[in-house]
Amino acid sequence: MSLKPKRVEFVDVWPRLRRMAESVITLRQVDRAVWNTSFSDVYTLCVAQPEPMADRLYSETKHFLDSHVEMLANKVLAKHDAANANNTNSRPDLLQRYYTTWMEYSQGIKYLHLLYIYLNQQHIKKQKITDTEAIYSNQSSDAAEQMEIGELGLDIWRMHMVEYLAEELVRHILEGIAADRASNGTLDSHRVQVINGVIHSFVEVQNYKKTGSLKLYQDFFEGPMLQASGTYYTNEANKLLQRCSVSQYMQEVIKILECESKRAQKFLHVSSLTKLRKQCEEKFINDRLGFIYSECRDMVSDERRQDLRNMYIVLQPIPDHLKAELIQTFLEHIKNEGLETVYALKGENIHIAFVENMLKVHHKYQELIADVFENDSLFLSALDKACASVINRRPSERQPCRSAEYVAKYCDTLLKKSKTCEAEIDQKLTNNITIFKYIEDKDVYQKFYSRLLAKRLIHEQSQSMDAEEGMINRLKQACGYEFTNKLHRMFTDISVSTDLNNKFNNHLKDNEIDLGINLSIKVLQAGAWPLGSTQVIPFAVPQEFEKSIKMFEDYYHNLFSGRKLTWLHHMCHGELKLSHLKKSYIVTMQTYQMAIMLLFETCDKLSCREIQNTLELNDETFQKHMQPMIESKLLNANSENLSGDTRIELNFDYTNKRTKFKISSALQKETPQEVEHTINSVDEDRKLFLQAAIVRIMKARKVLKHNALIQEVLSLSKVSFTPNIAMIKKCVESLIDKQYIERTANSGDEYSYMA
Amino acid sequence: MKVTIKSWTGVASWRWIANDENCGICRMSFESTCPECALPGDDCPLVWGVCSHCFHMHCIVKWLNLQPLNKQCPMCRQSWKFNIH
């Protein structure tokens, strides 16, 4: 056949074409040859001479489809009516018929679309406004506009079928879904398929639209469906409430949520899944929060894991602020437990118990959060808050919080020589950092730590230098270089001192000098060590020492010019060999004690006054060092209280199983005064820190409001401590007095920097 | 001999001996550091000139580098020489 346009009569061609269209749309068998003829019939009509008959073809086709669908609609409904007359329980049939008809029609219209492809491509597409025009001209596609045949078919279906039957269909669908719910999701699969098909037909019928293709689905079906589901959920929830405890209720709800989301997948269009889920959560959870929370406190305090797990699952989808109650209860619970384990502590080893109990609590709840709450950050931060508030709690307004001290002492206990194996110590130190991080007064910790470290280093009590370094590195990681640089300095001094001693000994050997004393000297740099009061305690060095000390000083000054050495005798110690007893003993003691013993070289009895005067010791030092000597029974005193006239004599009957022992010294123990001193010095340091911070800030900002200044100071000091506002104010006042800053003339709460 | 010393572990701290409290260049105490340093001690040592004046090493080196021709002591204007003991 030729493609040339030719003259044709519409009435000649149309009946043939119409029959063909009917066969196609009802999915009847069509011969290839007939199909081809019809295909060219469409073409011929579209290009007919003298006038193309495309418009007429379109309107006739439309008319044909109109009547076809109307007929189908009647078929779906008419049968329904007929059936209704004798069988009231025929509802599924309506859906079934609609479904079958739709399956046929939707397929048929696709073929018909192909048959009319020339009309679609050449005639209709050309008149269609382009996408961009559609978007920007805001013209609604009016009814008069011609549509492609496939779309036309669907549109007609919508008008005559869907809108006509919608109410009835939806009612049946909802009944179907209700039946599925009632039967626990065991509706037979054929019926599920039908309902699913019908629901999806609402979407498919508008699928060709670029915008609002879900509108029909949403208007006719989704809205009523959500509403019906909502009512159903509310009823179910009410029923559950009547027969369930909170814990059962939550279990049920979790099950229902799961079933419902499976059900939604089974029936609904994807766009509805989240909406239905939301509805479900709304009715079962949000609306019943009061009930769910009613046993929250008990569940948390009894740590009923399964219930808490369920509660977490149930509450997960709801907004955070609604979860607050669970989290708050949880927080309170941890806090109470923490306070309980920590604040009843008494006795010598309070610091060990404090840290280990706190670690236990922390560990327990960390594990619980991982197990029950999926490591939810909200719960982890609740744990942090609880721990921080336990650790930083002050027993009362007046008393300072002692946690920093305890934690530092705990480290000290670990790092001192002991029988614990290194791996265990290492592990414990790592754990210790967990607690350390919660401490607000990190500067207090630093003070205590550095004092204890100094003692360990000077008295050579450290278990291992590796462990010490490891701990300092951990602190550095947690708080930065500033925090630990003094600690590092102390380490350096010790290793420099070791070198120095070796060199000194070699020097002695080279010059063939024998001091008779095994000398080991530690030279510390004054600024880096927490040496306490720097004032030198008067002490007349016994001549037995003098030569050695002089040798070392000379050697040192020769090596480092411009430096002055100050001996810290209260930190020195040594070994004495006692030969006046039955056995000879080697005793370790403090320098002052050594000096006292040396006095007995020439006599056996001395009065306290004599000793004190010879050694030029003050009362306090004398008492402190004399007491342990008498307690150890190396010396005997003729009265309990050591007054000036008390006679001290050598105890020639002294015996000890060991030949090498140590006189425990009062000094190595921490006295309450020392603790107080440490705390006071922290206060001084804080003031200096705050003043420096204020000056630095004001220098940068020139003019600043009071509140802004306070904020900046707080953020600067956050790393090492939390200053109270009164202290900051005092510092500001003192800086105004010192004329670093002044109040600006026009405003009372503004400061300006004075260059 | 009833009592003899076997060994002794001594502890001493050291400070600078300077003829002044403060460094004449930066006006900071010798006990503390020059303005550039964070920690006193070995990292920020003192040095003496032949003229007996004493400064933070960092301070005097910086000063000397700023003098194009005659390297003089900033205190007494004698030409500067490090006093090496």
UniProtKB/TrEMBL annotation, chain A:
Pathway field of the UniProt record reads: Protein modification; protein ubiquitination
In terms of one coarse class, where is the protein primarily found? nucleus
Q: Which GO terms describe its biological process?
A: ubiquitin-dependent protein catabolic process
GO terms (molecular function) for this protein are: ubiquitin protein ligase binding
Cullin family profile domain location, by residue? 402-630
> Which PROSITE patterns does the entry link to?
CULLIN_1 (PS01256), CULLIN_2 (PS50069)
Alphabetically sorted, this entry's keywords are: Acetylation, Isopeptide bond, Nucleus, Phosphoprotein, Ubl conjugation, Ubl conjugation pathway
Which compartment or compartments is the protein found in?
Nucleus
Protein name as catalogued: Cullin-2
State the organism named in the record: Drosophila hydei (Fruit fly)
Automatic annotation (TrEMBL), chain B:
Question: Hey, which pathway is this one from?
Answer: Protein modification; protein ubiquitination
Location comes to: Nucleus
The RING-type domain covers: 34-77
Q: Name one GO biological process term.
A: anaphase-promoting complex-dependent catabolic process
Assembly: The mammalian APC/C is composed at least of 14 distinct subunits ANAPC1, ANAPC2, CDC27/APC3, ANAPC4, ANAPC5, CDC16/APC6, ANAPC7, CDC23/APC8, ANAPC10, ANAPC11, CDC26/APC12, ANAPC13, ANAPC15 and ANAPC16 that assemble into a complex of at least 19 chains with a combined molecular mass of around 1.2 MDa; APC/C interacts with FZR1 and FBXO5. Interacts with the cullin domain of ANAPC2. Interacts with UBE2D2.
Q: Which family does it belong to?
A: Belongs to the RING-box family.
Q: State what protein this is by name.
A: Anaphase-promoting complex subunit 11
